Each structure stands twice: as structure tokens, then as C-alpha cells.
């Protein structure tokens, strides 16, 4: 009863933004990180378009032409951590962060400079986050109306 | 989102790659930060409160979806946080969000690729300084080093930087 009285006094016109910590974590874990991994699997840059082709010597060494995939460590190194209220950081663990940094920033090869932009938020991931929140709103409203 | 046939160089040329964007690309950290007040409600609390105040569930849902779509006062920060790299990374670093995560005392290590590296970058390689000092001295590719815009060095938070031989792909 006391809780209801307090809630009823909240001026909702003054409410700005929402505590979405759990939602940001789910978006990081279920949308953004899998999207980055899918981009590597399909050879698509985070900003769209194909990743640059590997050099012939690299393809020969690896035995295949798939960009950014050799030992599999980079693809399995993405993680997220919470950092206070409404803050989530998505990053890369271990020395793959340094290696990924060079690849993302651009490397000089025999056939010129190549930039492998594999890490970030794609338009697909942005749309996915919006779809997630859209469904969350519908779900919360449905549950709330069911409990009345 | 660039068209599928765009090269990254074309896309960047059109969009005038900003320093904030470079930071997101170079540091390889995505900050999902939706700034929020101390008294911010969760979505469930917000809906329950409005129901208790007499608003119909259909109206609440309509308001929330509209706010999400238009980036209003409730979901504006959320929209900024999840917007795509390039357009979004500028926002994510705005308002000192970067410092609010790591604190002002975070230091960055200058990391050189060590292949055809200029003498200025070799000298900086491994040095650790706060971002403000690096900005004063000159960030990579800003013309502060002999290699100027051809610089391939990156600045990484010193707590995650690892200096060891670099394999080109993996």
C-alpha cells in the first residue's frame, strides 16, 4: 500500500530516460556481439560492403580465403561488461584486441592499404535493438494489463 | 549505412570521419551508455505507475512506442546508445561519456605497428599518457609525426594494451 502511494506521487511528465540496464545487457549479448560474429563469418564490414580480400600469401598460409579467421580466437574474444547504471561496454579480450586494432585501423599490404572494419554496431544491430525494445514495450504492457 | 558497393574510403570521405569515430574504431570498445537520472524508473515501473494514475494500457503503449520511434525524452538516450557505428559513435563519445566510464585518470598507450615505422612513432611506442596529453602532443594521423596521415599507430587504454609481436590476421 505504501509503495502505491509513493508511486502515485511520481510526476511522470518529469521522468526523463529509463533505467534500461538489463535491456542494454541483453542487447549487447544477444544482438550486437552475435552481429559482429556474423559479420566475420560472412565477410561483411560493420559499415556494410565486403571486407577486403586477403593477400594471396595469406590465403596460401591459412589454406582458405575467409578474412579475419585463422585460429578462431578473434571471433570468440568478444565480451560485454556492465559499468554502472545504464552502462555496458562491449570489448575484445586478450591480445586479440591489439591484433584487431591493427586490422580495423588498416594494415599496409603488397596490394595497398586494407581496412577490416569488423567491430562496431551495424545498421542491422541498431534495427535489432529497436525491434527488441519494441517487443519489450508490448510485452510489459501485455503483462501489466493482464495483472489488473 | 553505406550502399553495399561503397568502399569504406568512399563512405568516410562523404561523412568526414571525426575524431570521436576514430576513437571507437581504434580503441575497439563500444560504450552503450544511456544517461539516466537517479530516480529513473524501469519500464515495468513506468507502465505500472501510469496505470495506477488512470491512463489506459493502450495509451501507455502508444506513447512508449512513439517515444521509441521518435527518440523522445524517455528513449532518446537509448536510441543514441544503440545507433550504428559512425553515426552513433559520435554520440557515444559526446558529453564526456568516455571519461564517465573509465574516469579522467585513464591513460593510453601509443602502440606502433613496427613495420616501416617512422622515428617519431618509434619514440612514442609504449609511452603511456592521459588522452588530454596525447591530444596536445598530436594524435595518430593528425600530422604530429613524420609519417603524418600515413600513421598506422593506435592509442589503446593502457590497462588492455599488450605489446607483443603482432600477427597480421587471426
What does this structure look like?
The complex is a heterodimer of chains A (148) and B (170). By secondary structure, chain A is mainly α. Chain A contains five helices and four strands, in the order αααββαββα. In chain A, strand 3 and strand 4 form a beta hairpin. The longest helix of chain A is centred in the C-terminal third of the chain and has 25 residues. Chain A is elongated. Chain B has 170 residues and is mainly α. Chain B has a three-stranded antiparallel sheet. The longest helix of chain B is centred in the middle third of the chain and has 14 residues. Chain B is rod-shaped. Chains A and B meet through helix 1, helix 2, strand 2, helix 4 and helix 5 of A and helix 2, strand 1, helix 3, helix 4 and helix 5 of B.
Any chance you could write out the topology, listing elements then pairs?
The complex is a heterodimer of chains A (148) and B (170).
Chain A: H1 2-8, H2 21-42, H3 56-62, E1 78-82, E2 87-92, H4 96-105, E3 107-109, E4 112-114, H5 123-147
Antiparallel strand pairs in A: 1-2, 3-4
Chain B: H1 8-15, H2 19-27, E1 30-33, H3 43-52, H4 57-70, H5 76-82, H6 87-93, H7 97-102, E2 107-111, H8 119-124, E3 128-130, H9 131-137, E4 154-157
Antiparallel strand pairs in B: 2-3, 2-4
Helix pairs in contact in B: 2-6
Amino acid at each position: 500500500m505504501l509503495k502505491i502511494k509513493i508511486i502515485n506521487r511520481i510526476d511522470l511528465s518529469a521522468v526523463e530516460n529509463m533505467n534500461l540496464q538489463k535491456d542494454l545487457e541483453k542487447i549487447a549479448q544477444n544482438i550486437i556481439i552475435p552481429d559482429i560474429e556474423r559479420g566475420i563469418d560472412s565477410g561483411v564490414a560493420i559499415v556494410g560492403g565486403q571486407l577486403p580480400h586477403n593477400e594471396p600469401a595469406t590465403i596460401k598460409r591459412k589454406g582458405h580465403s575467409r578474412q579475419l579467421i585463422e585460429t578462431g580466437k578473434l571471433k570468440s574474444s568478444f565480451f560485454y561488461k556492465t559499468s554502472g547504471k545504464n552502462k555496458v561496454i562491449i570489448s575484445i579480450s586478450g591480445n586479440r584486441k591489439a591484433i584487431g586494432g591493427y586490422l580495423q585501423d588498416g594494415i599496409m599490404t603488397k596490394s595497398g592499404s586494407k581496412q577490416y572494419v569488423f567491430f562496431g554496431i551495424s545498421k542491422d544491430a541498431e534495427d535489432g535493438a529497436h525491434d527488441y525494445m519494441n517487443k519489450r514495450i508490448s510485452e510489459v504492457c501485455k503483462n501489466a494489463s493482464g495483472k489488473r | 549505412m553505406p550502399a553495399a558497393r561503397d568502399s569504406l574510403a568512399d563512405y568516410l570521405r562523404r561523412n568526414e570521419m571525426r575524431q570521436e569515430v576514430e576513437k571507437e574504431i581504434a580503441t575497439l570498445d563500444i560504450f552503450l551508455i544511456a544517461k539516466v537520472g537517479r530516480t529513473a524508473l524501469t519500464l515495468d515501473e513506468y507502465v505500472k505507475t501510469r496505470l495506477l494514475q488512470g491512463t489506459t494500457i493502450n495509451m501507455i503503449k502508444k506513447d512508449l512506442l512513439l517515444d521509441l520511434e521518435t527518440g523522445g525524452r524517455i528513449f532518446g538516450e537509448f536510441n543514441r546508445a544503440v545507433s550504428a557505428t559512425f553515426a552513433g559513435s559520435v554520440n557515444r563519445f559526446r558529453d564526456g561519456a568516455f571519461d564517465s566510464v573509465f574516469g579522467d585518470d585513464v591513460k593510453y598507450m601509443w602502440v606502433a605497428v613496427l613495420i616501416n615505422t617512422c622515428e617519431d612513432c618509434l619514440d612514442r611506442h609504449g609511452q603511456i599518457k592521459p588522452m588530454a596529453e596525447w591530444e596536445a602532443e598530436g594524435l595518430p594521423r593528425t600530422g604530429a609525426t613524420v609519417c603524418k596521415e600515413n600513421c598506422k599507430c593506435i592509442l589503446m587504454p593502457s590497462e588492455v594494451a599488450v605489446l607483443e609481436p603482432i600477427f597480421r590476421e587471426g
